[in-house]
Design a protein that fits this description.
Layout: E1 3-12, E2 15-20, E3 31-32, E4 35-37, H1 44-56, E5 59-71, E6 76-87, E7 97-101, H2 116-127
Parallel strand pairs: 1-6
Antiparallel strand pairs: 1-2, 1-4, 2-3, 2-7, 5-6
């Protein structure tokens, strides 16, 4: 049984929010979608809302899921959802930096290996409208 990590693909006016990892050292500086592990007893969507509250200080509305299970390190899978900010302004509480990426900038950051195919899927989805 894999450990599920959830990721929020927060979209606003065609822009996507990217978060720069602060830790662990081997991932620091890479860019990812905010999120984290699902705690026992919570749904994946509840985990997404909690993680965005903790990491970014925002309340989100969870939208459609992006793709299926995205492989992470052995024993982990990532599940991603589109999301929008309902309240608050994203702040880098646990990340080095946050950056809103316009469509022409979607691949301008050094995405972590696991997040890159998700960004490609999201770019394709958003291009379709």
């Amino acid at each position: 049984m894999s450990i599920v990590v959830v990721a929020a693909v927060i979209v606003s006016d065609g822009r996507v929010l990217a978060a720069q990892r602060a830790e662990p050292p081997e991932l620091a500086g890479g860019w990812e979608f905010p999120g984290g592990k699902v705690d026992p007893g919570e749904s994946e969507e509840e985990a997404l809302v909690r993680e965005c509250r903790e990491e970014l200080g925002v309340e989100i509305a969870v939208g459609a899921r992006v793709g299926g299970d995205w492989p992470l390190s052995p024993g982990y899978v990532m599940r991603a959802w589109l999301a929008t900010v309902e309240a608050g302004e994203p702040a880098a509480k646990e990340h080095l930096a946050l950056r809103w990426l316009a469509p022409q900038e979607y691949f301008a950051v050094d995405w972590l290996g696991a997040d890159l195919p998700v960004m490609q899927a999201v770019a394709d989805l958003l291009a379709q409208g």
